[in-house]
Amino acid sequence: MKQEPSRTGCWGLAPTNMKGWVLFLGLWGGLEGCVSLEPQYSSEQTGLEFGCASGDVTSTDAIIWLKGCGSLSLAVQYGPKHTPERMLETDHISPTADTDFTVKINLTELTPKTHYIYRAVVEGKQPGPLCQFLTAPAPDDPAPVTFVIGGDVRESFRPFTIMDEMRSAKPDFFIFLGDTIYSDKGKTAIQLTDYWAKYVENRDVATQRFLAQTSVFAMWDDHEVANDFSSTHPRMPIGRKAFFDYWPIRPDPQDPHRLYRSFRWGQAVELFLLDTRQYRDPAAQMMLGPVQKQWLKDSLAASPAKIKFVVTSVPFSDPRKDKWGEYPQERDDILDFIGKKGIAGVVFLATDVHYAAVANVPGPLGLKELIFGPLATTMHYQINLKEPRFEYFNDQSQNYGKISVKSGHPNFSVEVEWFDKFHNRLHRVEFGEVSSHNQVSVKPVK
What we know:
Helix content: 10-25%
CATH topology of the largest domain: Purple Acid Phosphatase, chain A, domain 2
Number of domains: 2
Strand order of the largest sheet: 11-10-9-19-20-21-22
Largest sheet: 7 strands, mixed
Number of helices: 8
Oligomer: single chain
CATH class of the largest domain: Alpha Beta
Distance between the termini: 45 Å
Structural class: alpha+beta
CATH architecture of the largest domain: 4-Layer Sandwich
Number of strands: 22
Shape: globular
């Protein structure tokens, strides 16, 4: 993938192979402008097929994703944004063909609530584009948090200009919730190389710009393998490997196939990202499977976060097939547990269904689900907007969500906004303290 060099670069230093502290003089002026520009050099100059991406960021760690043009060794140079004169460099590693020359590098011992800048250096090449991410606040830090969320991007809808709109919101992070490719549309992906090609196709310039500036928590849904797939689909292992190869996901040392995981973001927020696909068994009426379901229960009960966002690629409130309504026993068991344990501050976030909505979760707890998207594909046209579960419904505009949480003892407030790709705000709601019955009261705001 050849990209033309810029007339004026953000840096002009030759690559260095020094370990430990690396000195950059006069490098970081105008950081924001550099991050938002096209890549500064061609792939021949940098040895990189794309820019960089960061993900699964915690208060002390971050995964950096890169794709080399071949097997030349590469490293990451990184450090706090406000002390750019001295940067650390990781050990060099060599990409291999069995991951399509993608690599993931774990940065550790980072400082909480700190903006970091980083770039890749390939052996014998110019440094790659400048990128950045923000580490999470410490768990006891009442810092506010703002993030964006969306899913569903189909290659025929490129360019993905909505990525630039999300980038302009300057979020702390991005939740990319499913259908990050459409492997079963256009030329159907069959072999691993086909799946890789779908990811390459979707990594357009707007997406590269966004991922260079904002870290991502990525989760898959059905189109990363095939429409409405479950655990028995023969291509599930192939699609899963491609998903791991192309997103900055931290592998679980005990289970390399595990995708469900949780992340704390200060005192205010904990995210619980559910894998609703690889353990799904319609015959056994299981969406999550017993291990993941128990993990979710235990994790929710143990979390002291003010808001516990349960992030599910298919809506919890949806009564239809392939959604949680097809698995009512498992859904109701989770809700019963939340009620019996008196777990406060639970809010569901979902995508997949190609409409925006605020929906009531079934049952007596008064829980809410916020539904977003699609980012870049067709809108849904088969849903009944008059379903009583909806408090808000929009199937007219591609959209993303922006969620802002402010936390303080003992109160908190949450603002949720839906925006289209032209930066028009479609809807806004607010909610705050949770009642003694765990009920979240959502109030529309003009």
